[in-house]
Each structure stands twice: as C-alpha cells, then as structure tokens.
Design the sequence.
C-alpha cells in the first residue's frame, strides 16, 4: 500500500504548517500532517513516510514512529488530503 497526496486547488506552506484548498474544504495542517503531504507528493509507502518523518523530527521518545505515522496518514485519508493506492 502506498499513500499519495490528493492535489489541492491551492496550497500555502508557512512556518511548518500548510493550508490546502479543495473544492469543498480548506484544510489547515500542523507540522506532521504538512510533512506527510509533502513527502507523499509521489506515492510513498508507510515505511518511506515514517523514515522521512523521523529524519525531519527525530525518533519519538517512548512511542512507535510507525504507529504515529499510520494514524496521521489514516486521518489525512479520511480528510481527503491523502489517498491510498495499491503498490
């Protein structure tokens, strides 16, 4: 399974956050979600997204980075900013 960013009509990245404009919604993304949508401009696996997030933010103390990225990516899929594709 790969994740890919759903291209917005417009995007503004600023101060580690992003605004994504879709036909029916404006999404405001915090730093983790902003990073995930930037990393998934080209299709990326969960492992690739996790590696990119860890490179940007470091390994989270006492938490599983893959689980955190999976949860954030799932939320972005539900919100329409990412979609899942078969590998």
Sequence:
């Amino acid at each position: 399974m790969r994740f890919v960013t759903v291209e917005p009509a417009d995007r503004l990245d600023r101060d580690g956050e992003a605004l994504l404009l879709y036909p029916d919604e404006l999404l405001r993304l915090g730093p983790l979600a902003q990073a995930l949508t930037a990393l998934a401009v080209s299709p990326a696996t969960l492992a690739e997204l996790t590696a990119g997030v860890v490179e940007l933010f470091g390994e989270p103390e006492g938490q599983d980075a893959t689980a955190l990225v999976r949860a954030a990516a799932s939320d972005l899929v539900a919100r329409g900013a990412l979609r899942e594709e078969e590998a």
About this structure: The mean pLDDT is 96. The longest strand covers residues 17-22. The first helix runs from residue 31 to 39.
